[in-house]
Amino acid sequence: MVEFRNSGGRPKMKDGTRVKKIDVRFTQEEYDIITGLEKELGISKTELIRLRVLNDAVKIVINASQLICVLDRIGADIGRAGNNINQLAKHANTLKLKGALSPQVAVQFNNLLEDYIAIQVSLESAIRKIIQQMGK
């Protein structure tokens, strides 16, 4: 005869017991989203909802792979813009050597370049904030 030993049941909670229950109904689309997040993040539906509602309601659960794809596209766009600026600067230098560069064109180019640099600095700051939030 095999003797079964009492393993003590479910481990005791550190901070009280969960005695209250909330029933929630979802549409099929909402449920599919939650199920997808459960698989992608590797946590149960209950923990996913509990974390989202109770712990960090201000934070947003994000799809990391989609975010990386978007950031990759942004990086590629920045690279293309840099190439375009280099081509314009090369063309301007060629015109300057020939004496055909209009001062108005040079001033307008410098103004546009300053605007571009300001936008790029703002974009870099936003990306840093995203990365910091992901790390928390």
From TrEMBL:
The root-end lineage is: Bacteria, Pseudomonadati, Bacteroidota, Sphingobacteriia, Sphingobacteriales
Q: Which InterPro entries match?
A: NikA-like (IPR053842)
Fetch the Pfam families from UniProt. Answer: NikA-like
Per its record, how is this protein called by name?
Plasmid mobilization relaxosome protein MobC
